[in-house]
Structure formats: structure tokens, C-alpha cells
Amino acid sequence: MLDGWHLTSLDAPTVAVVWSWAFADAAHARVPVLSTAMLAVATWLLYVADRLLDAMQPSHAGALQQRHCFHLRHAKYFLAAALPAMALLTWFVAARMDPAPRREDFVLGACALLYLLCVHLPLPASGRGLLRLPKELAVGVIFAAACVIPSWSRMPALRGLLLLPAVFFGLLCWINCSAIEYWEARAGLEARAGLGDERVPWLGGHLKRACVLLCGASVFGAAVFLREPGCGVLLLSVAMSALLVLWLDRNRQRMTPLRLRAAVDAVLLTPVLLVAGLRLLHRL
User: Fold this and answer.
1) How much is the pLDDT for 132?
2) Which has the closest alpha carbon to 13: 45, 51, 52?
3) For helices 11-27 and 257-266, what crossing angle results, to 10°?
4) Domain total in the chain
5) Which of 22, 66, 158, 203 is the most buried (most CB within 10 A)?
6) How confident is the model over 172-191, as pLDDT tens digits?
7) Distance (Å, rounded) from C-alpha 167 to C-alpha 170?
8) For the whole model, what pTM was predicted?
9) What SS3 state is found at 74?
10) Distance (Å, rounded) from C-alpha 279 to C-alpha 241?
11) Distance between CA 25 and CA 257 in Å, rounded?
12) Domain enclosing residue 54, as ranges
């Protein structure tokens, strides 16, 4: 089940929905259910496009992972689902979305499309992508922004309060993406962009230190936000996820590459455990 969740590109939308809900809960923002559903649709479309574009580039043939092969093998089904999903998303943005979130999401969507262009449009001379910012960092920034914008745009007075959890969540996403790239490289697989050893992310080689530092900083931040339990839960969720990534790194040899890849996204679902646990304690 966990493997299928990853192969069908449902992992990233699930994480986006959970963290969007967690940010809204912390800010006491009323984010419409339809808006959250469209965030999931947009995230799924972006990830499907990224994996299909990776799979269809001849230069990546020797570096494809199981997720790319699955998307390529079932491309017609993904495209059949993507077309109505794209139409639904376009209708929602044009007809149902509030003006403030629409403006900020438009900028974010443009950044996401620019990311796809930079990663998948190689320079003629070198065959390298146009993106000079580390791809893992770019993904972390865009993903974290997409999760916080629904609350950010509806509760402008709390933007300062949500800033630190959003930044730390972005760092967590950067660690997540770097760990994936690093583990695949360590398993003897070439980087997807065909850049050999240069493509191995620097952060992946310092994964233990990065996880420990992020965990410590998040716990300290949660202590500072004692009077703001919502933000404290967000920061503790980041800390717990960072520790779980570190645990996966230490035990990666015991897992198949596919299970490891799915698990590193599953450990980002910690807000569900913490928020549900706190509510249960509150009721008791």
C-alpha cells in the first residue's frame, strides 16, 4: 500500500494537504475544503509532470527510478486523469478562488512552472538544466510556500507567527529531497539529470548533522512559542520528522529502494499524530 501511494504520486499531495491543514489549524484560519482539495490536485499534477518529463528524456534512461518507470509505463492513464484535473483546477482558480490567495498562488504557480522549465530544458552546449539553485532547495521552498499560503493569505496578521514554522518546514523538505537523491546515488544509481557525481546533493552528505541541527532548532523554537501552542505543534512536527529521516538514513540498508523512498515521505505526516494526540489529551 505504501509503495502504491508513492508510485501513483499521491505521496506529495497527501503531505501538502496535511501541512496545509496544520498551518491553518495553528493560525485558526478557515481554509475551504475545496481550496485544500485543489492544492492536492495542483501538487499531483506537478509531480506527475516532473516524473513523466524525467522518464521521457533519453539522457535519463540509465538513471530512472521505479517511480519514473511506473509513470512511463502507465503514461496514458496518468494523462487521462491529468486532463480533467487540470480543467477542474483552472475552473477553480478562475471562478471560485478568493482574490488574495489567487494572487499569491499565481506567483507560486509561475515559480513552479519555471522550476520545471529550468530542470527539464537543457542547455544545448552542456545538456545541463538551466537551474543553478540546488533543485532540492527549490523544491523545498516551493512546497513549503504552497502549504502555508492558504493560511498566510487569509490571516495576514499572523504572517510573522507562521514565518518560522514555514521556514523550518521548507528546510525539512530540502532535507527530504536531498536524502532521496543521496540515497539513490549511494545505491550506485546515476543522478537523474545525468550529471554524475556533481549531481549528488551536498546536503545529503551532511544528512545527520542537518537533521540534528534542525531538530534542535525546532525544539528550541517550540519552547519559545509556549504561548502559541499551534506554532509549537508545527515546530515539534518538524523536529519529529527530522529525527525519523535520520532513523531512515541509519536503517536504509534494511529497506528496498522503493520502500525507503515511500517511507521518507510518510515521515512528513507527523502533524496528524501530534495534533490528534493533543486533542485527545485535551478531551481527557
Assistant:
1) 58
2) 45
3) 10
4) 1
5) 22
6) 999 999 999 888 877 754 44
7) 5
8) 0.88
9) coil
10) 20
11) 34
12) 2-283
